[in-house]
Write a structure and sequence with these properties.
By secondary structure, the protein is of the alpha/beta class. It is about 60% helix and about 10% strand. The two termini are about 50 Å apart.
Length: about 700
């Protein structure tokens, strides 16, 4: 809200420039265009599309939203635009890009509809353009679908032989796999193998039982005959062979003799040696006979002492013992063979799951390739059928009819555009002028350079028609006016600032540049001070361009301050002082304008001020502007303080910055600011309030006089 008020103030201040810009923009942008405009007609048509989803039978199918997005771009393509232009019965003086830019294509959200519209001055022309666009797009869409279907058929035709080759390769892999692993039916083989393993387990269990039984019988016989199986076999053979028995008997007899002879004859006796040789011959004969029965044992290792010679009944038992041993060996051999066989079957069973998995993979691959081939063949057949029945993605189309009424009243639109554009342009120009204007327009700008108090705000009383002030000295000629009260308020502020320690008896009034009203303010301030009983001297120290004589008028005196400061001039100060009213004297600038700085800065000037301080209560020095020369700085240092006059619209920020720097370097005591011709809402209110107050008081006094 605050920023809006600032903009309104700127526009009110720059109303003339803003109004001029508004008028120009409104005329050309609004009025001129509206006077030349013709009505426009809008023709519209619609295209409704089929909703499709991607599938293996139609890999070119897109989702509905993606398809419509592509169609929106395709409808405004240069190729379609050129076809439309060729299809029209009338010529168009437009480029394809210009024509397509005027076509409006819209897809309402979540629909399968595209709306086309074209605006033109001729309604029949607009409708024909839309209809030509719809016809050409429908044909283009159908041609694209036929082309896509043909491409699909060609693609499928190339893929079918390759798919057949891959199918044959996979079938060959399955055949080789079965041959390498000797497989016909893995499931049947697994079932039969498990049955075989179960039968073998039963046989092994039965053989183990028989083996345990035979071993038990053999252990019982072994307790009766403490011989091993080999000894039982030999004993049985000896019992059954008279020759072997006779040889064993002879060997035993000779051995008995040898032992007896060793005792009688000694180990080296010839008879003993002969007996030993006879023993050796008999043992060799025995070994030859025993070779036929000792197949697992070296015959030379058979000791005659180990050979048991049973009787008739014992021989039968020994024969049974030997049979049991042979049967046990046979059972153990069968059991070993069965265990090895069952291990082989179990290894086969362990490999069957892996073989089954590999076979299933190959079978799945075969089925997939077979299905792919069938789908390719089916899709190829469908593609061949679709070539003769393709209608495109367009389900239906609604052609445009010739519009009967204009779309919009462009005259009102142009007038509104011109009005809004004028306001915008005028406001922008006013804002830019305000930004480019470096003039001082408010107290905030002054505060950036001077922090001294504002002792008074003097309005532009020449423009106050209600006051009817025509004099430069309103305090003298219109003492009851609000302007006069403003100057009296300045004098009151100066009285408050003056103290015994720091009295304000000499005050310099200056400004930054010329024509800021410093001379008029100095004169009226002097009159206001004299009006409150002070004896005041007004010194016109602007020797270059004096203005007090013009303000006061009817002053015949020509000599003044410059004449007094010249050494060759013997004029007395008292002769040059001009009394203009009670308690107020003026010392004019004089005639001489040569070397003003030297005159103002001379000791004589300081002497004059010191002498006048003894005679007057207040000395006001009307100094030249600070930016003109160093006169104002010199006078400011000679006085007790300086009042700076700042006029709105006359001084800018750069000048104010230079003035501040000059006064700071000269160490001038600035006691306050006087704002001249400043305008603001608060100032107007203050002024008119005072005016109303004094006007009412004046009328009241008149009524009292006539009552």
């Amino acid at each position: 809200m605050e920023e809006l008020l600032i903009y309104l103030k700127i526009i009110r201040k720059r109303w003339l420039s803003a109004s001029l810009v508004f008028g120009v923009v409104f005329f050309f942008l609004g009025y001129d265009r509206s006077s030349k405009t013709v009505p426009l007609y809008r023709a519209s048509g619609t295209i409704i599309f089929e909703t499709k989803t991607p599938s293996i039978t139609d890999p070119f199918a897109l989702t509905s939203q993606t398809k419509l997005s592509n169609d929106l771009v395709l409808m405004k393509s240069d190729s379609l635009t050129k076809k439309v232009m060729r299809d029209l019965e009338f010529p168009l003086e437009l480029e394809p890009q210009s024509l397509s830019s005027r076509l409006m294509v819209v897809n309402p959200q979540n629909t399968d509809v595209i709306e086309l519209s074209f605006v033109d001055e001729d309604p029949e022309k607009a409708a024909e353009i839309i209809n030509a666009w719809i016809r050409n797009y429908v044909q283009l869409d159908r041609d694209q679908n036929i082309s896509q279907t043909r491409d699909l058929a060609n693609f499928l035709e190339r893929q079918i032989p390759e798919s057949q080759k891959e199918l044959e390769k996979t079938a060959e892999k399955i055949k080789e796999f079965k041959q390498d692993n000797r497989i016909l039916d893995i499931t049947a083989e697994a079932s039969s193998t498990i049955g075989i393993i179960s039968g073998l387990d039963s046989q092994i269990a039965e053989l183990q039982a028989q083996l345990a039984s035979q071993k038990s019988r053999r252990d019982a016989l072994q307790k009766i005959f403490p011989v091993d199986s080999q000894g039982a076999i030999i004993s049985t053979f000896v019992n059954e062979s008279p020759v072997v028995g006779s040889l064993i008997k002879q060997i035993q007899e000779i051995r008995t003799k040898i032992e007896q002879e060793k005792i009688h004859l000694g180990n080296e006796h010839p008879q003993l040696i002969a007996l030993q040789k006879q023993e050796s011959v008999l043992e060799e004969q025995l070994q030859k006979y025993l070779q036929n029965i000792d197949i697992q044992r070296n015959p030379s290792s058979v000791d005659v002492e180990d050979v048991y010679q049973p009787g008739a009944n014992q021989s039968a038992l020994l024969a049974e013992y030997a049979n049991l041993d042979r049967e046990i060996a046979s059972l153990e051999a069968k059991l070993k063979s069965l265990n090895q066989l069952i291990d082989n079957y179990r290894q086969r069973v362990d490999t069957l799951p892996n073989l089954e998995f590999e076979q299933e993979q190959l079978q799945r691959e075969l089925n997939a390739r077979s299905d792919l081939l069938q789908n390719l063949i089916k899709n190829y057949q469908n593609a061949q059928i679709s070539l003769n029945s393709t209608q495109g993605n367009v389900r239906s189309a609604e052609f445009a009819s010739v519009p009967k009424y204009p779309t919009t009243n462009r005259r009102v639109t142009y007038l509104i555009q011109g009005f809004l554009g004028g306001i915008l342009a005028g406001s922008l120009v006013a804002y830019l002028l305000e930004q480019l204007d470096q003039g001082i327009n408010n107290i905030e700008q002054i505060r950036e350079y001077f922090t001294q108090p504002v002792l008074g705000k003097i309005p532009d009383f020449y423009r106050r028609k209600t006051d009817k002030i025509t004099s430069d000295l309103p305090v003298k000629d219109n003492p009851s006016s609000p302007i006069s009260e403003n100057f009296r308020a300045v004098c009151a502020s100066l009285n408050f600032m003056s103290t015994e320690e720091k009295p304000l008896k000499v005050i310099t009034i200056s400004s930054s540049v010329a024509k800021e009203g410093k001379s008029t303010i100095a004169a009226n301030t002097a009159i206001a001070a004299a009006g409150i009983g002070k004896k005041v001297l007004l010194i016109e120290a602007d020797l270059r361009k004096p203005g007090q004589k013009k303000i006061w008028k009817n002053i015949p005196q020509e000599l003044g301050l410059s004449d007094l400061l010249h050494k060759e001039n013997n004029s007395l100060l008292s002769d040059l002082l001009i009394p203009v009213m009670d308690n107020l004297d003026i010392l004019l600038a004089g005639n001489s304008k040569s070397n003003p700085v030297a005159l103002i800065g001379s000791p004589q000037m300081l002497y004059i001020i010191e002498e006048m301080k003894k005679q007057y209560d207040l000395i006001i020095i009307d100094a030249p502007p600070v930016s003109i020369a160093a006169d104002a700085q010199i006078l400011g240092r000679m006085s007790d303080g300086m009042l700076m006059v700042i006029r709105q619209g006359k001084v800018n920020t750069s000048m104010l910055a230079g003035t501040k720097e000059s006064l700071i370097q000269a160490e001038v005591n600035i006691i306050g600011l006087l704002l001249n011709c400043f305008t603001s809402d608060s100032d107007n209110y203050y002024y008119y309030y005072n005016y109303s107050y004094y006007h009412d008081r004046k009328d009241e006094n008149k009524n009292k006089l006539f009552s």
